[in-house]
Amino acid sequence: MGTIVSTIRVGQKPTKEERKRIRAEIKAAKKMPPVFDPECPPSTPEALAEFAAMAREIRKNRRTPAPVVALRLKPDVLSKYKALGKGYTSIMADVLDYVADNPEILSKAHR
Question: Is residue 64 part of a domain?
């Protein structure tokens, strides 16, 4: 079975025929055996055990939850970060971490 491409515009819903075709394709795909890419063969039990060990190590080394801090910012600075979208507070924290780890930047800060 190949890839079928359909173009649907914003706000447009698929027709009954398209929904019926899609359901039939999904039903047929569920009965097909998985096909593995030769460039990416299935993981061996040894590789899975290694991945599990890596995940345990990552979880063990995770930082403890950061304390919540109230911070006063200029409105234009906050709007620039908010424009970055979801997760902008994590980006702010990363910037603060970077600056704190680079004394030459701190020495140039306006005091």
Answer: no
